[in-house]
Amino acid sequence: MELISQHVKKLMEECKLKAIDAGLKFESDTLEYIVTNKDMIELTPKIMIPTLYDYWVNDVEVLKESGKYKLYPNNPYETVINSRPAISFYNDNNPDWLNVMIFYHVLGHIDFFQNNRLFAHTWKDDFVGKALADKRLLADMRTKHGRWVDYVIEFTRSINNLNGYFTELAKNQHNDSQNTILSKVEFYLQDFLQVIKKRPDSEIFNEVERLNLWYEKSNDVDYAETMFLIEVKDKYPELQAEFDKYISKINQPKNQDLLEYIRDNSPFLHKSDNTWMKEVMTIIRDTAVYFEPQIRTKIINEGWASYWHDTLFREDKKMKTHEIAYAKLNAMVTSVQRVGLNPYAIGLRLVQYVEELANEGKISREFQDLAGVNNREKYDKKTGKGRDAIFDLRTHFSDFTLVKTFTDQDFVDKHDLFVVGKRMNYQKKTEEYYVKSRKAEDYQQMLVDSLYHPPYVYVDTIRTHEDELYLIHQFEGKPLLQDFIADTLLGIEFLWGGRVLLETVEVTATQNNSLMQRPILFIIDNKKIRKMYR
Predict the structure, then answer these.
(1) With a threshold of 0.90, does the pTM exceed it?
(2) pLDDT in tens, 376-399
(3) Gap between the terminal Cα atoms of the chain
């Protein structure tokens, strides 16, 4: 692994200037490395962070990927990590024109990392440096505690699989000055009207339009929102009291996730000989929290980067004489799969769709109320606000909000999307695929089901005491994977230092192929696990 040559670095710096001119925002300092396929195989299990802590699973993954590579040789084009400075890796046999195209794609990722609100807690961190410090600390611990360090890593990572950290990201996004006019406006439109008052959509749309009128009347945003809230006060005098309750609620101590609760409350870990384990748990948790936004923005992040490599490379002189090669490569990366899901393809098309909607003025109440296919197709206000809209999209959206907001019937029809089903053809004795649905709600649900959604397991603090930890799995339609329950509970029992109970739901198939849910309680005590149906 080595830094790119000065010639290639010059190409990257030229790409940066063009990307900034197009509106992308990122720190100017970046590091680019040339790597071989072997380097990629060794770095991938460490999430491309060369300094990440050592762990035996990394070695297993390297062996597995090496075996795959022997069977299916391939050349990965690039990988970029969210660090300060941003670091990216490139294949060692890329021609200049391909590197330029990839540079634009990478700059799209860097812009996303440094501007999307889910990544706010990473904006000031040199994670590569922190990871190196953590790695050295764990190495030092191994000299003192031996294999117990790896046991604690193993147990902590298994607990980490039960943590989503979404509330942690939401907390990081929250404005430090909670009691502001802006937050009060958002509270009124979102919580007060929709949740507390349960007002119809028509009234909420009218209030949004009234706020927009105030924005149009005044260049001073604070003044516009103040006047808007004065009018609201006449209609809903109880708004201030509800807002005060909201502020007091969000300022209360936050609920701890499972890993955090065990680390901070375990009697076993409070013993002087065991306090070093807390440092190990903190390293694993901090690493997971750092990468959580990337898990939740795979579609929109790849879509955003693909949008910019296509937009900027088409205008670059380096594309000349390479149009066919680029078209073939771009099609391989961003083509819609009929079976399966390509996040590059769906993300790119959703970003382009939002841009089109905004350019035509279709992100509006007027368009949403419009009936008739012809009327909707002809509707075009020519606002020219498409680029502004997708930059707002990049700042405020995750995969879930992007999919739930914009995967509508117009989008599904535009790209001829459908949900694929699979059935057995008994005559031919083969499985066959068929078009199961072309409805937007079904396609949207398929996308939502593909998103990261870890189980929610929390501590029942009332039934928990020094000798016993009581856990509850909030069932959301998907049961826990029973193959992993025993090992996970074994780790939790070790770290808690006492008996552990887990309430969950078991799903079994009945004779008529329907699904039956049965409450079940897992109990582990002295490394022996048993389960009780309730």
Answers:
(1) no
(2) 888 988 888 999 999 999 999 999
(3) 57
